[in-house]
Design a protein that fits this description.
- The relative contact order is 0.14.
- The chain has one domain: Vaccinia Virus protein VP39 (Rossmann fold, 3-Layer(aba) Sandwich), CATH 3.40.50.
- About 40% of the residues lie in helices and about 20% in strands.
- The chain is globular, with a radius of gyration of 17 Å.
- It has a seven-stranded mixed beta sheet, with helices on both faces.
- The protein is α/β, with parallel strands linked by helices.
């Protein structure tokens, strides 16, 4: 199989035309992911076509609710193997991207990928969201925060909204029917300075995977006491 041609074809189905260089970067990312996955747990999805659909294509579907602008700063909280941050950076090279993960060996892998692919203006950080969100150089500095991390919406909002500047947005990638979760998180989002806006629900192209992208706009600055100390947002979600 011509992997690059396949990648370009799949992206063109969602109206994204990749250059030969971008297709090559995705192919190289795939190869590095699979090689590293043999020695550490990065992804349960390893078949090439599935990785393209459920990791690469899925990552850039945010364009349905927010198209990345020129020179915007984005942060991917709990990035894991680099999703959605690295695919977004490949497709939108003008973005400044911060990748944040709490596991150092994953962060080392991400740095290897960034170096190998020649990606510029990408920062891979090892640490917890609760700590970095308290630092002046990261707090309320981002146009958009994205996260595919598995956490309930109230907890995830407390980890992510403090990074977003007023007027920016937090977009969590959720799966499963999330109406109840949205209703339960409404108060938390408000406390943190956000407002739940539109949501986009769809089946991920070429797969059986349901996806919901939620657009949460940052209306006002987040109170200094949030996020609370390590573990609290998960143990006792705001409500």
């Amino acid at each position: 199989m011509d992997k690059r041609a396949y990648i370009r074809d799949e992206f063109s189905k969602i109206q994204i035309e990749l250059s030969e260089k971008q297709a090559e970067q995705f192919e190289q990312y795939y190869e590095m992911l699979i090689a590293k996955n043999e020695v550490m747990n990065l992804t349960a999805i390893t078949e090439f076509e599935e990785v393209v659909q459920k990791h690469f294509i899925d990552s850039v579907m945010i364009k349905e609710v927010r198209e990345p602008g020129d020179n915007e700063k984005w942060i991917d909280v709990g990035t894991g193997a680099g999703f959605p941050g690295i695919p977004l950076k490949i497709v939108y090279p003008q973005l400044q991207v911060t990748l944040l993960d709490s596991l150092n060996k994953r962060v080392k892998f991400l740095q290897e990928v960034v170096d190998a692919l020649g990606l510029e203006q990408v920062e891979a950080l090892h640490g917890r969201a609760e700590e970095y969100a308290k630092k002046a150089e990261y707090r309320e500095q981002y146009d958009c925060c994205v996260s595919r991390a598995v956490a309930n919406l109230a907890s995830l909002s407390e980890y992510c909204l403090p990074f977003v500047k007023v007027g920016g947005a937090f977009v969590p990638y959720k799966s499963g029917k999330i109406q109840e979760e949205i209703e339960a998180a409404g108060k938390a989002v408000e406390i943190l300075g956000g407002r739940i806006g539109q949501r986009k629900e769809f089946m991920l192209p070429g797969s059986d995977m349901y996806r919901c992208l939620l657009y949460i706009e940052k209306m006002k600055a987040t109170a200094k006491k949030y996020p609370r100390k390590a573990g609290m947002p998960t143990k006792e979600p705001l409500h």
